Amino acid sequence: MWKRLTAALLAGLLAAAAMTAFASCKKKNTTADDSDAYSENTVTVDYLRAESKDADGNIQRDEEGNVIYDYFRFEAIDSTSTRLVEYRSEIMGAKGVSVIRTYARHAVVIPDRFGERTVTEIGERVFYANSSLTGVKIPDRVTTIGAYAFALCSDLAALTLPASVRELGEGAFSKCVSLATLTFAAASELTEIPENAFYECKSLAALTVPAYVETIGDGAFYDAESLQSLILSEGVCKIGKMAFFQTAALTSLVLPASLTEIGELNFYGSDALTAAGVTASGEVAAAYVEGLNLK
């Protein structure tokens, strides 16, 4: 009898403990605003869901007038900074009760803070192959953009890299085929454009690489087929192999005296380029251009 009673009591205690743990898990994963508060930012332990707004603070809508919502998930780096690790968009039904779809072409303003932490990094592949992204505003305290973070964003048309960015991952903006305008902020800490960073960005028409960039990696602007004007500022020291391979539309090229190394196959396939369109300062640049045998 005592054995049966003890077993029954133990079973009851285990069941109660299981219910408490289940309730605790449910509470931890419940959003602060789970019912109808989609009109304001909803914050949980690690993510933010908010009405999508443009750079002027206007709420963005799809073609049918439905409000677009941005979903950002963050991962704390330390007590003062955080990393964006996931993004998606949602178009909600009436009163935000259901997701109609997850696609709507729009520009994204990345939050500069999440809770008490500053957003300082954009993780690897966060916006990878996001065909609805037409533009992005990167916060001016972001220091790192991970590998392939914006690769294959086929509708991304313009980009400004803020001065705070000092590290780009490999292929960060590769195959952004609609990217026509690329602007580097003044007084930046970025010293290297890495391998394949803007690989097959086929719509770039003009590019000025600023003086603070010392190295341009292998294949960085490979197959920039629309590039007509390229200026490398005094201070650029190294161009990796095939960094500017297959730049078929190139007609104007400025190479600085600061260059100490130019990798193989740069400016090959630049059929529109003539000797009259090139300004090459310094021995390394002049010798390389001479080897191109331009008309």
In short:
Helix content is 13%, strand content 28%.
- Identify low-pLDDT runs: 1-45
Number of helices: 2
The main β sheet shows up as: 9 strands, mixed
- Sum up the overall morphology in one term: elongated
Report the C-alpha radius of gyration, rounded: 26 Å
- Span between termini: 105 Å
The secondary structure category is alpha/beta
Number of strands: 21
Query: What is the residue-averaged pLDDT?
Result: 86
Secondary structure: helix percent: 10-25%
Beta-strand percent range: 25-35%
Order of helices and strands: HEEEEEEEEEEEEEEEEEEEEEH
Overview of the molecule:
The chain is of the alpha/beta class. Helices cover 13% and strands 28% of the residues. The chain contains two helices and 21 strands. Strands 1, 2, 3, 4, 5, 7, 8, 10 and 12 form a nine-stranded mixed beta sheet that branches. Strands 14-16-18-20 form a four-stranded parallel beta sheet, covered by helices on one side. Strand 3 and strand 4 form a beta hairpin. The protein is elongated and about 65 Å long.
